[in-house]
Amino acid sequence: ERHPIHTDVVIVGAGPCGLFQVFELGLLGLKAHVVDSLKAPGGQCVELYPDKPIYDIPAVPVCTGQELTDRLLEQIKPFGAGLHLGQEVTQVERQENGRFRVVTSAATVFDAGAVVVAGGVGSFQPRRLDVPGAAELEGKYLHYRVKDPRAFADQDVLILGGGDSALDWALTLVDHARSVVLVHRRPEFRGAPASVAKLYALRDEHRADVLIGTVKECTHVDGVLKSVSVQGGDSVVRRVDADQALAFFGLSPKLGPIAEWGLDLQKKQINVDTEKFQTNIPGIYAVGDVNTYPGKKKLILSGFHEGALAAFAIKEYLEPGKKVHLQYTTTSPLMHKRLGVA
Ligand code: FAD
């Protein structure tokens, strides 16, 4: 196990609320590390609607999900928060000395004074193929991500899905696999039109195939994938021989490990008070879509406010008795120093 990273606060989730939490903590002189299971920061804004316009961020008449994220990253730059992406926070444990041991799926360990859960609707997980025979093949013959395309050399590969991941991997694996067949339930693709055109061009050259239909079953013998049954629009079921299947049906959020940390949950949200945004465990706070309280609205601007109040509460929790005056960023020399604009 690695040496723990010592920090004031660990923030679980790099969505808009987790990112702005870095800013509010930074203004009060607190150092944070942010962890997200996704490979890029931005939470739902980047994962679900990077190009869609948002109109209700105060003083920003319009910006896209990606632009909002870029601006938040720019705004928190002065505070030098550690960003740990592509890893899920799996464990949060209060230790005897009152500090928290936080562990991620990549075996990163933190020793933190406080924890802010900004996990939104949970961590995004690949949507699974839910047909008879699929679950048993997972990991060996049925995959939801590709680590090394060379692993598919000389294999007959079936790719399921119609988005960019499915298309990109089909185009990549053509150069590695013995054969590539892409199966999508509709003739219309969600992915980039240029990729669709490339795929059809490869089909015309007999280097790949495209099948429109719905997967009904995976057939295996002694745990080894043999074929996948695909029902076409003509309702005929065709069996396609395959050594390996790759499914790219997008990501869906699961509250995941957050549910196992002893937090008081209501449905899939964490109960907090509206003074400190603290959970039932002292020292663990929750902001953004993941929390609930009377009158809660799942809006970005509400999460920003929650982060500001949580930061003051955390300051008091970590440095009890020390008076914290409200200071304006406009006029406070201390704020200017922390922001690096002095
Ligand atoms: P999220 O954005 O959900 O981010 C949470 C992050 O935490 C995720 O990246 C997740 O991977 C990570 N995470 C969770 N669990 C773990 C774990 N255990 N370990 C590591 N990482 C973890 N709101 C508005 O105010 N205005 C709008 O116009 C608007 N439009 C929207 C349009 C759409 C299509 C959608 C879906 C939402 C929209 N929203 C809008 C809602 C807004 O996106 C959310 O309120 C906001 O994203 C919540 O931010 P968050 O930081 O709390 O959580």
From TrEMBL:
Residues given in the record as FAD binding sites: 17, 36, 44, 49, 89, 124, 289, 330
Keyword check for Cell inner membrane: no
Cofactor: how and how many bound: Binds 1 FAD per subunit.
The keyword NADP appears for this protein: yes
UniProt-listed Enzyme Commission number(s): 1.18.1.2
UniProt cross-references to Gene3D superfamilies, sorted A to Z: FAD/NAD(P)-binding domain
Identification of the protein by name: Ferredoxin--NADP reductase
Organism, scientific name: Povalibacter uvarum
